[in-house]
């Protein structure tokens, strides 16, 4: 799978390099600051693609003594680096646009700029869609993130084409730096979003969508011996997950039976989260008399209280570190 990811990101890198060359050609032909802004963003595509190649290579390395959870978190560094580069590019674009408001350039060959920019926008849109779909299918947050960035590049190029058309027909050159300011602000926003995603991953921020999915799996396929699940924590390492939780089970189960139940628990979640490797750390809690009201084992030989209701697991009762005894 890692080789496939590398082939995909190398393809993205090669195409981005060609498109960057085309955009700078358009800038030298037209002297448009908006086209220069677009070209500067494309440089980030090339730099980020190179860093992504390394992160994919490193994330594919097996676990070792120094990295017991693997090397997957390097992918968060990758998208953080890409976000920082995009943010810097946005600042440079705004600075350049401010200069052009003071000294507006004389634009040339705007029609050629429209055709070149239109071709690069179409190519970026196709490449971005391919990368996003490939990133979801593999799955790879690095490839998907790179695809989202390239799609953003395509959208800004589309807006740039509209501006160039207006300049071509109206002759109002102030539109050029004005559009550059808008593009710069959009690029700053995208850079912030990627850096925010990177920090969230590096700080082990819980992905509630994954938590909800795991909880839904357990609700749908629960065993009667799984009386309670609580203190659940989900951490992401690249495309892999590490899940900790406590599971309350009948205290009288033999160790071999309890082990079989936990193996079934792990295989269930691992199977349903297809495409992700999941590592578990499950602590088994013995049931207490207050657990009887939620225990579905009607044939339990030590029941001290009648069954009252089945607990439907949710974020509110699975994440806290306490048993469901009320």
TrEMBL record:
Q: What is this protein called?
A: Cation transporter
**GO MF annotation list:** cadmium ion transmembrane transporter activity; ferrous iron transmembrane transporter activity; zinc efflux antiporter activity
Pfam families on file: Cation_efflux, ZT_dimer
Q: What's the source species for this entry?
A: Chitinophaga cymbidii
The membrane-topology field of this record reads:
Multi-pass membrane protein
Q: Which GO terms describe its biological process?
A: intracellular zinc ion homeostasis
Q: Give the Cation efflux protein cytoplasmic domain ranges.
A: 210-287
Query: What keywords were assigned to this record?
Result: Membrane, Transmembrane, Transmembrane helix, Transport
Is Transmembrane helix one of the keywords?
yes
One Gene Ontology CC term in the entry: plasma membrane
Show where the Cation efflux protein transmembrane domain sits. 9-203
- Indicate the transmembrane segments per the record: 40-58, 79-102, 114-132, 152-169
NCBIfam families according to UniProt: CDF (TIGR01297)
Q: Which SUPFAM superfamilies match?
A: Cation efflux protein cytoplasmic domain-like, Cation efflux protein transmembrane domain-like
> According to the lineage, what is the superkingdom?
Bacteria
The record's listing under Gene3D superfamilies reads: Cation efflux protein transmembrane domain, Cation efflux protein, cytoplasmic domain
Query: InterPro entries attached here?
Result: Cation_efflux (IPR002524), Cation_efflux_CTD (IPR027470), Cation_efflux_CTD_sf (IPR036837), Cation_efflux_TM (IPR058533), Cation_efflux_TMD_sf (IPR027469), CDF_Transporter (IPR050291)
